[in-house]
Each structure stands twice: as structure tokens, then as C-alpha cells.
Amino acid sequence: MSNSNITVIETKWEDVIEGIDLLKRKNLSLKMWDDAIIVSRMRRVKTNKIYSYDRDLDNLGVKREF
User: Fold this and answer.
1) Alpha carbon distance 63, 66 (integer Å)
2) pLDDT of 7-25, one tens digit each?
3) Domain residue limits, the chain
4) Residue 56 and residue 32 in contact, taking contact as beta carbons nearer than 8 Å
5) pTM of the complete model
């Protein structure tokens, strides 16, 4: 994807562990595991903004853009 504003970030095992910990700290359902892993990856690369319509991310402290 040359000249793209999209960045693909690989998932590491640490992202999974941190995502589950995040859900436990916020007392949220483990059904949100995929959103929590996204947030973990975002934190790892030091970004707090994502282009998404997924409202579950709001509960995880992420700023969504459309």
C-alpha cells in the first residue's frame, strides 16, 4: 500500500494479555476481547485515534474518527 494513510500493526502476545487486563480493570465483558486488543496495539504504537464506527471502543477510552 504505497502512499496510503493506513498502517497495519501486527498483534503480539503481550497485546492479548494487556487487552484482557484492560477489560478486567474496566469491569467489561470478555466478549469485547477484540476491541481491547486493538486498544493495546494502539497504546504500543502510541496513538489514541482510530477510524471506526465501533462504539464499543468508546468504553475503552479511544477517540474514534469517521
Assistant:
1) 10
2) 788 999 999 999 999 999 9
3) 13-65
4) yes
5) 0.82
